[in-house]
Amino acid sequence: MTLEKDPLEHERASWKPSPGLAVAVPDPVRDPELPPHRARITDKDPAAMTRAVRTVYTLFYLSVAASIWAIAAYFLFPIENGSVVAIRDNNLFIGLGIALALLAIGIGAIHWSKAIMSDKEFVEPRHATRGRDSTRLAAAQAFAVANEESGFGRRALVRNSMIAAVVASLAPGIVLFRGLAPFDSPLEPDAGNPVALLSRTMWKEGTRLAHDPEGTPIRAADVTLGSAVHVIPEDLADLSHTEGYLEEKAKAIVLLMRLLPEQLIEQPDKKDWSYDGIVAYSKVCTHVGCPVALYEQQTHHLLCPCHQSQFDVTNGAAVIFGPAARPLPQLPIMVDDEGYLVARSDFTEPVGPSFWERH
Question: Where is this region: Disordered (predicted)?
Answer without folding.
Answer: 1-23
